[in-house]
Design brief:
The complex is a heterodimer of chains A (308) and B (253). Chain A is an alpha/beta fold and 308 residues long. Chain A folds into two domains: 220 residues, 3-Layer(aba) Sandwich (Rossmann fold), CATH 3.40.50; 81 residues, Alpha-Beta Plaits. Chain A contains ten helices and 14 strands. The radius of gyration of chain A is 24 Å and the shape is elongated. In chain B, a hairpin with a 2-residue loop joins strand 1 and strand 2. The longest helix of chain B has 32 residues. Classes of the chains: A alpha/beta (308), B mainly alpha (253). The interface between A and B is medium-sized, with 33 and 25 residues.
């Protein structure tokens, strides 16, 4: 499938000399949810800003649906909806007016039925006459999504869409995003909530210091880089790991109450059987046992550490 | 041309005027009425006529220009500064709309408001003092050109300003003194020769002179010079705006 967004050798240096992007190459397929992760200052917002037209591009090129974002900016921007990170709203406007304004700004004819549909999907219909200043943070976030969807975009950028949003609303938003994807909208999501990317994204891109350091399908990324940890809660605390168990490279928690064994669950031999045998031989008894999968957050932190 | 986007911006800005009717229309009209009371009645009773026109009638064009100048700047500067202040400017910059279309929407709305205001003041003045408009076409042309030019100027201030203080500083410290010293309340010929020469450095003199000529056929400078000066100022403002949007000054990093 040809990419709906294609970024080639994109670099950006701000006037102060800060090189925010260094030769970014990235293709985003139509209809996917792409999670863009990176620490603060990595270049996520600069990259999104350039694609959307908010920041002047530097070297390199970007095409959206085959159109150059500079030469054919009308064609590219009309395909894109942007939900910014900050809750930027016209405090004195009503929900209906601000969403209708966005549709007009993108050159679309009036369509009250579409605005009504978007507001209903985002549970904003009963607030349509409310001034934005009277809405909660979560509701304002929904209004920003409604504004971005008002002109029926094929690509939606969600820059930290659930920042500061409570858990319930966050899950509602995930549902909205899934429904949008089901309707064919391509979604590019930046987030600090790694579990959000893990839950939502088809592919993950990690950006650090202005460079894309990894792009991988989420499941594959978890499979390749994810590890499992076996935690053994001991019946009697240990002061140190017995010499007979050293080959297993165990970790002992500082309180001596847990032993942790890290392994690759896809390996042919995980070493668990041998470990349990050696623990029995060493006379170590345990009260409880559990395993945990390393999260995307762990993977992300390790990746960023490696690039520093 | 993205006419729907221009209409959206224009309608949005005009709706803001309706929401703030007292501030946008009523306040300037009351201020102008006060000028009539103070200058027209109190001082005007001591100055009977200037070049054959009663003092009350003489100051009408100047008062209209004073309001149109200041309100054009205030409306346009606030119109573009507010989205910058709240952050909603991202939507303008990411929309499929050219910079020319953005200017057309904001400046069109600001100029419309000023023209409506000028017309209301003119109608109000007609109730207080006898008025004649010798050249309605020229009167309308000067009104529209001034409203558009100073709305463009206000737009530049709104882009340049990075705080409310800067937004106010040019209108308060430069435009208001220039308007007061530009012959709103007197004829330049009433000044001593030295101050007459200094006054001709004030661009507002040319606007008020041309506008007053369209009413009473009396002017401090020729009609052609008045028209030329406003066109020069218009061209300068358009050039600056073209540069702002070409470079993204104060809008894009």
């Amino acid at each position: 499938m040809s990419p709906i967004i294609s970024i080639a050798n994109l670099s950006k240096t701000y006037e102060g000399g800060l090189q925010a992007l260094k030769g970014i190459n990235l293709d985003i397929a139509e209809g996917e949810i792409f999670g863009l992760l990176g620490p603060n200052g990595a270049g996520k917002t600069t990259l999104i800003g350039i694609i959307c037209g908010i920041i002047n591009p530097g070297a390199g090129s970007i095409t959206v649906n085959g159109h150059d974002i500079v030469r054919d900016y009308r064609a590219t921007r009309s395909l894109i909806g942007l939900v910014p990170q900050e809750l930027t709203t016209d405090a004195f406007e009503s929900v209906w007016n601000t969403v209708s304004f966005s549709r007009g700004l993108f050159g679309k004819s009036r369509n009250p039925a579409h605005i009504e549909k978007v507001l209903k999907e985002l549970s904003l219909w009963d607030k349509k006459d409310e001034k934005l200043m009277n809405l909660s943070g979560g509701m304002k976030r929904r209004v920003l999504i409604a504004k971005a969807l008002s002109h029926e975009p094929r690509i939606l950028f969600l820059d930290e869409p659930t920042a500061g949003v409570d858990v319930e609303l966050r899950k509602d938003m995930w549902q909205v995003v899934r429904e949008l994807r089901a309707s064919g909208v391509t979604i590019i999501l930046t987030t600090h909530y790694i579990e959000e990317a893990e839950e939502m994204a088809d592919r993950i891109g990690v950006i650090s210091n202005g460079e894309i350091i990894l792009v991988e399908e989420t499941g594959e990324l978890m499979r390749k880089l994810g590890t499992k940890r076996l935690k053994l809660e001991l019946q009697d605390k240990l002061r140190k790991i017995p010499a007979a168990l050293r080959p297993h490279k165990l970790e002992l928690t500082s309180d001596g109450a847990q032993l942790i064994y890290t392994y690759d669950r896809h390996a042919q031999r995980t070493g668990i059987t041998a470990l349990l045998n050696d623990l029995g031989k060493a006379g170590i008894k345990f009260r409880d046992i559990n395993t945990t999968q390393s999260s995307l957050e762990d993977i992300f932190v390790n990746l960023v550490k490696r690039t520093k | 041309m993205n006419w729907r986007a221009i209409t959206a911006i224009y309608t949005f800005e005009m709706a803001r005027t309706r929401r703030t009717l007292a501030q946008s229309i009523v306040a300037p009209v009351i201020s102008t009425a006060l000028y009539f009371v103070v200058f027209g009645s109190a001082i005007g009773s001591r100055i009977t006529e200037i070049e054959g026109v009663s003092y009350g009638s003489f100051i009408v064009p100047g008062l209209i220009m004073l309001s149109v100048l200041t309100q054009s700047i205030a409306n346009a500067s606030f119109g573009i500064y507010f989205p910058k202040f709240t952050g909603t400017i991202y939507e303008l910059l990411s929309a499929p709309i050219s910079f020319f279309e953005i200017v057309l929407g904001y400046v069109g709305a600001a100029a419309t408001k000023s023209i409506i205001l000028g017309s209301i003041i003119l109608a109000t003045a007609g109730l207080i003092v006898p008025l004649q408009i010798a050249h309605p076409f020229w009167m309308a042309l000067f009104l529209v050109l001034t409203a558009v030019t100073f709305s463009l100027f206000g737009f530049i201030i709104g882009i340049w300003a990075d705080g409310f203080e800067k937004l106010q500083i040019v209108p308060l410290l430069i435009i208001t003194p220039l308007a007061f010293l530009g012959g709103s309340f007197y004829s330049i010929s009433m000044l001593p020769p030295f101050w007459q020469k200094i006054s001709f450095l004030n661009p507002v003199v040319y606007l008020i002179s041309g506008f007053r000529w369209s009413f009473y056929e009396i002017a401090d400078v020729s009609l052609g010079l008045s028209l030329g000066m406003i066109c020069v100022f218009l061209a300068i403002c358009m050039g600056i705006i073209w540069w702002i949007f070409k470079t993204g000054y104060q809008l894009k990093s």
